[in-house]
Amino acid sequence: MTIFQIGILAFIAIGIGQLHKGRELALLAFSAFVIYWLQPPQQFVSLAFWLPAATLGLTVILWALTSTPESLSWKQNWPAAMILAGVTILVALNRYFGLEQVYMTTTPPLLQVAVVVFILVGLTIALARSRAVRPAVYWLALVGLIVLFILLKTPYFVNHLFGFVKAVQAGDAEPKQAILSWLGFSYVAFRLIHTIRDRQSGRLPSVTLGEYVNYVIFFPAFTAGPIDRIERFVLELRSPVSLARQDWVEAGTRFFVGLFKKFVLADALAVIALNDILVTQVKSAGWMWFFLYAYSLRIYFDFSGYTDIAIGLARVLGIRLPENFAAPYLKPNLTQFWNSWHMTLTQWFRAYFFNPLTRAMRSSKISWPVPVIILITQAAAMVLIGLWHGVTWGFALWGLWHGLGLFVQNRWSEWARGKQPSWLQTRAGAMIFNAAGVFLTFNFVSLGWLFFTLSTPDLSWSAFQVLFGFAK
Amino acid sequence: MSDVNPLRVVFKALVFYLISNLLFAYFEPAIGKLSIYNWLVPGRLRVPYEREAEYYPVSHIVPVYEDMDAMFQSHVISQPKAKDEFRVALVGDSAAWAFGLHPQDMLAAQLTALNLTTCDGKRVTAYNTAFPLPYVMKDVLIMDKVREYDPDMFIWMITLDAFRNRTIYTDYFLNPYADHVFSLIDRYRLNNLDIKKLESPAFWDKTIVGQRSRIKRIFLLQIHGLAWKATGVDHYYYSYEPLSNDQSDSLLFDVYKPGKLDLDELLFDVLGAGYGVAGDVPLLVVNEPIFIATGANSDIRYDEFYPRWAYDYYLEYLSGWMNTNQHEYLDLWNAIPSAEFTDTPFHRSPEGEKMLADLLAPKLLEMACASQEGNGIEE
Question: Does B58 touch chain A (CB under 8 A)?
């Protein structure tokens, strides 16, 4: 997102936040518009329309699937349905308005859009009425979402599928490389999975179509999180907005601090943040560490800056988004780091993967030793968090690096419990120990970024060699 | 509860923003002079330039053509001159800038590597102050700027292509210095220069908002300096197809058809302005080497740029102009073998640069000694 786009979002957020009536529907309309507006152009040009349309379609279908009977009435849902269909058709009409410079580079013919909207409405109504198949459909939807997610996040599949289609279209014998960028899908998928799992466990509150779609595509958090929980989000959405001076000050402060982090600190650090090119050009260990630290800081300021902007914008809309960062680089161990870095993602994995897996292993017929349970659950959770960013060796290794790090730290803490020397009990000793922990944790995390940011494990290994002075 | 009134904060911020913009526009602070180069990181060996923004991270540069202060503060020439240094500034286009070459291979570095000593025992140190646009008016502006860095001699590499009027370059390179260009036009009566697109910046263009792109580029250039220090890389070394000896049968030179090249319309008056700007600093003009094809149609074209009819006419005109104005110059148009050109008929290989340095050295020393004698320095 550009600073100009963020400025527009801020002005409209302030406007919507001031509405005494119709805030939910105005927010829904604008969020739906934003996902079309921010969707980057695609090699297959019409996908710039169909991907956001698919986000909306998928969300509406999953609402129908997970909704409770009391939230299904046409009376309370027709305004939201009309708005979603209306925004989609309005965007599709852009081919007649000729506003390509403002939004969307191209749109499909209206007839196609109308047919898809019609099918979507029919499917939604059918799903909402067919109660009997639900348990199976939940699992089907869950697996379908995960498979779609894996396909989209695997460069091999995307390149080959789209390359093949492009080659067929162009009449070429050789498939071409193609990339696909579905804006916000990573976060949308996790919110949808959260609602399916909570529906299965009976924890999902009764929500209307407008509330559900607002939760999934809430524009301040659509592209970069945080991943809120629906029960908390909907509670605030239903409450009237009453912003005191303090709220404005806090919202403004978060927003401008976020802009500064993202557009000054992160963008400046991006120039010298370690990348594939620098790894091949830098020969000295000192400079390699310097550029690696620059990357560590850059990714933090970039991501936490976006989070601050999202929290600030949401605040003026009357929504308190959860925190995503809490000074992670100042934490003295890896567990605390992960409790303060991309917190909503780790909480999600803890709730829907780590805890269930741990429970399953503990209650299984096989008597797993505790260290083995810890190793498997932590490594698996962290590898999955890595793969959430993309199905590549680099992300998998990054996850494994952290999984093993958490395991080693866990075992060390267990072993060292009650064995602290007396000097550690003093204030100075504790401070030194804490500082050493911060230093070690920051460097461990920074080294992990080598797998995350460099495009191949070979490059990561080259960087390791230079960093530790054993490069040829 | 907070005592802070958000509306007052917003109002104060807006007032501060407005005042700082007005003050910036009024005082026009020379922010380009603020630089980490030559103290925190080494100065660059050539001015920052790259063809495409996608190469900036490879070359660790960002061009700041709209601020010559920043351009030259990042250059090694802005270091104080040593007492025993004879400072030679090389001006010209992409060939002089040394496109495709590593800093140690470029002409300026090759000249310095010759370890030349002038008559009074000063070491010749050559600086690459070229900017990769073939446009003589840009060279004159740069020479005028480089004079601030106390050069003892200029070497100006020219070619026919650089004498053409190009409004795109006016827009791109001259506009940020419009007022200065207007004064040069008046001083040297540069009647041929196409200035349709040249306009002085409005007051609002001088505000922080109006100058945001320049400010950002200057800031980023400083940060890129760290990567420059760490890597020594300042250019994207691209791969290229070697030049073909076979030429097309077209007789066209750019937009000019045979017999239509009116050299009086070209920017030879700017060449005169170059001598004027150099003033008492000796100026050696060099007609730079070009690739000379030997294959198909080489009887009608020297290369993809120049048909013979146009270039021969230019050679004759240049010689006549120099004689009329009593200037010495070096015509090295055919001095480098074709094999030593790389991707264009102007860009040379490291070996080509070395040959050119060897050819320039005697004339450089001759002019250096002559100027020192003229200044009353005796051997």
Answer: yes
Residue ranges per structural domain of chain A: 19-238, 243-321, 324-467
Query: Looking at beta carbons, which residues of chain B come within 8 Å of A281?
Result: 230-231, 233
Q: What are chain B's domains?
A: 31-374 (3.40.50.1110)
- Angstrom CA distances, A424 to A369, A412, A439, B90, stand at 31, 16, 17, 65
Average pLDDT on A126-141 reads 76
B369: contact with A, CB 8 A cutoff: no
Check pLDDT > 50 for residue B379: no
Q: Please tell me the distance from the alpha carbon of residue A39 to that of residue A185, in angstroms, as a whole number.
A: 11
Are A17 and A23 a contacting pair, CB within 8 Å? yes
**Model confidence, pTM:** 0.90
Asked if the model's pLDDT at residue A163 lies above 80, the reply is: no
CB A288 within 8 A of CB A464: no
pLDDT greater at residue B355 or residue A128: B355
State the pLDDT at residue B375: 66
List chain B residues with CB under 8 Å of A271: 57, 220, 223-224, 227
Q: What is the mean pLDDT of residues A83-105?
A: 79
Q: For the stretch A230-259, what's the b/e string if a residue is b when 16 or more beta carbons lie within 10 angstroms of its beta carbon?
A: beebbeebeeebebeeebbbbbbbbbebbb
- Residues in Cβ contact with A446 at an 8 Å cutoff, skipping those fewer than 6 apart: A292, A293, A295, A296
